[in-house]
Amino acid sequence: MHFACGQEIHVEDPIEELNEEDAALEFEMTPADSAVYFFQDAKLSGNLTVFIEEGNKAVFTYRFSPSIYGHCDDCRTITEIYFEADIKNETKFYSNDLGSLQFRCNYSSTWGWLDMSDQIQNTGSVSLKKVSDSVWSAEIIYRNITEEKRDRDFDTIRTNYIIYSPICENEDGTNCYDKFKRRTGFWKITYPNSIKEGIYSGNLFTGTELLHATGNPLDTSKYIEYLNGNVISQYHPDDWGDSRVNWHHIENYNILYFSALQNDKVNINYEGKSCSDYIGVDSMWMPLTKKEINELKEVILNENNWHEIYQDNNESGINSLLSGFAIFTNKDALIGKIDITENGSRYNFHPKNSIANYGQINENRRESVLNLTDKLHKRVVSNLPRNKK
């Protein structure tokens, strides 16, 4: 079975009342993956994200995705139909002016989705019959402009529209929909490679989205902030710059210390590596306390701790990672890091810390600078399993 144009689409009928003798329309239903609802006191919104808003009509939404659609060069995989109608105090409704119903047709196929300009160009008719306060039966005959150009027949849909009832996906009252099936309240959505967390109001999102290509939420590949559905900032770990972490206010961030420890059974080559390459390896990290973060701040903001002139890095071990600090927002987005080389003389700041110049420790200040990392190193070692000490 496959679905293309010029077909009749039938959806499973859950309402026995449609078999009554005086039914104006007959419906032959077959199972499919469908979502067919109507919404009272509503209208279609000009904002496609909001989609449905308060109004004085009823909005009818239809989404059909056949579980089996075969393989062909011109198959529809998803069909979506939306329209609004004034059905108050009516038991039947008919219109052959689809434009007056704000009728939209959208579908995906092997060659993509319709453009918005094409979705609203349709001819045909809509027939509705009231079955109960919560059910309207429908026959929709339509042809989209894209099908007309290809000399295709009209499509016919016969189905039931069921009044939508708001639901929450989680028992704790989060991830909820409002009466127009728009996301509302607090949502946390976890995808295989991203996490979206924040507040929805009428489908408009305010919050953050973390993209992590490796599947590890801490290994953030992109961080996006939204306000009322609009992106207000986004950045990528490769795009280090002054707009990232503010070194003067690192007390506002969460900071983890990394120690490149090796044991007898594992020989890891840390040459040219960064601490961020090991995010997710729990045994190698230690969170800083507020006091330790302030100690780190004093170290990196004291210009007396750093060379004023860049020196050659031919010294052995200069590029081999010893330890480091990873700086995260309270949403676990990586926004900065400091890599410390094996000989402990070079701090590589990302983004650049202008006070630290090239991050080479002033030998006269080296002991005081290393006090903090030595203390953190001992904490990491004390928490390692016995075979890694």
SS summary, helix count:
4
Shape assignment: elongated
The largest pleated sheet is described as: 11 strands, mixed
Order of helices and strands: EEEEEEEEHEEHEEEEEEEEEHEEEH
User: What percent strand?
Assistant: 35-45%
Give a description of the structure:
- Residues 1-32, 239-243 and 309-317 have low confidence and may be disordered.
- The protein is mostly beta strands and 389 residues long.
- The protein is elongated, with a radius of gyration of 30 Å.
- The protein has four helices and 22 strands.
- It has helices at 116-119, 145-149, 290-301, 366-382, and strands spanning 8-10, 33-44, 52-54, 57-65, 76-85, 92-95, 104-109, 112-113, 122-132, 135-144, 155-163, 176-177, 183-191, 194-201, 204-211, 222-227, 230-235, 254-259, 285-287, 321-328, 334-341, 347-350.
- The protein folds into three domains: 8-163, no CATH class; 176-235, no CATH class; 247-388.
- The longest helix is centred in the last third of the chain and has 17 residues, at 366-382.
- Strands 1, 2, 3, 4, 5, 6, 7, 8, 9, 10 and 11 form an eleven-stranded mixed beta sheet that branches.
- A hairpin with a 2-residue loop joins strand 7 (104-109) and strand 8 (112-113).
